[in-house]
């Protein structure tokens, strides 16, 4: 059964994204476990997940690309990350990713820190979050 955006109020579809730049895959996998537990406790329907070990400025990030493909297809309502820096540490790249999420009406959720505060630290305080 294919769910439409209108049905998402009852079964919000979430994509879990974890990344570490340290090269220790276990760290990223632990982030993913924590995100999965958080999503289940909050009633989300997990439609995908990405776990990768890549530096923040690395171009080749297949997990990020897979997540953005799902967003563009309309398969996702929410993206869950532990911190905003999991997407990127660079303001320009981060603002592009957030613009894609906003264009497709996808909510971004950070589980470890306040998202508004993190956006403020990156100088992106003009971006609205829910």
List the keywords:
globular, Rossmann fold, single chain, alpha/beta, 4 helices, 4-stranded parallel β-sheet, 130 residues, 4 strands
Number of alpha- plus pi-helical segments: 4
CATH superfamily: Resolvase, N-terminal catalytic domain
The assigned CATH architecture is 3-Layer(aba) Sandwich
What is the level 1 CATH name? Alpha Beta
> What is the mean predicted local confidence, pLDDT?
84
Give a structural overview:
This protein is of the alpha/beta class and 130 residues long. The chain has one domain (8-121): Resolvase, N-terminal catalytic domain (Rossmann fold). The chain is 38% helix and 19% strand. The protein contains four helices and four strands. It has helices at residues 25-41, 62-73, 91-103, 115-121; strands at residues 13-20, 45-53, 78-81, 107-110. It has a four-stranded parallel sheet with strand order 2-1-3-4, sandwiched between helices. The radius of gyration is 14 Å and the shape is globular. The model has no long low-confidence stretch (mean pLDDT 84).
Summed up:
The protein has one domain (8-121): Resolvase, N-terminal catalytic domain (Rossmann fold).
Helices and strands, with pairings:
Layout: E1 13-20, H1 25-41, E2 45-53, H2 62-73, E3 78-81, H3 91-103, E4 107-110, H4 115-121
Parallel strand pairs: 1-2, 1-3, 3-4
